[in-house]
Amino acid sequence: MKQTDTTNIKTEEVSPLTVKAPQVKRSLFIARHGETEWNKLKRYQGSMDSALTEVGVAQAKNIVRALEGRSIKMMYSSPLGRALQTARIISQGLGIPCETIECFRELSYGQFEGRSKDEVKAHRFFVEREKDRLHSACPGGESYFEAALRVQQQVDRIVSSPEDALIVGHTGVNRMIRALVTKSSLEDYVKYEQTNNELVEFDFFSNKETVHQLT
Question: Which domains does the chain have, with CATH numbers?
């Protein structure tokens, strides 16, 4: 199988991409999974996992309450346990199906996974990445740009559907999904962290993104 060499691909070739506007007015919601045990301990998770805390379960239920009465027809989730646990709560609460999408998994943080942020904060990577946050990757990990490339096709498919939908993902990969949906600069969205209690809504009619704080 031929592999794509991304070495010389420019950012402009990824964003605004080929993402198509839907044929009818609708909204796309993007949620982060609820708080996990490792979130609480400030540990890097990436491709690893930990269970939702009681707070995380409550945050997932808050999403249900926020979306009750909305015309959400479909949900798409990362395959990682913390996202699926969140998605199952939402699916049961709203009575909507959920499709697991492999490429919506969180960025790999390589050698940092499972380690606390305090433990690795002195690593030279954090100084070097300031030169190019979009293309920098943790040792043995993945860059935001690589994540944007892998989610592009599925984001295009979801956006092209006329149905309102919800994506349940992670703080890292959601940055790239949001950039692609809004047709914005990937570099700009690298800095847009999404907390566990924030629900992002993109309205295709007004072409506006709103971040809802859920309590």
Answer: 26-213 (3.40.50.1240)
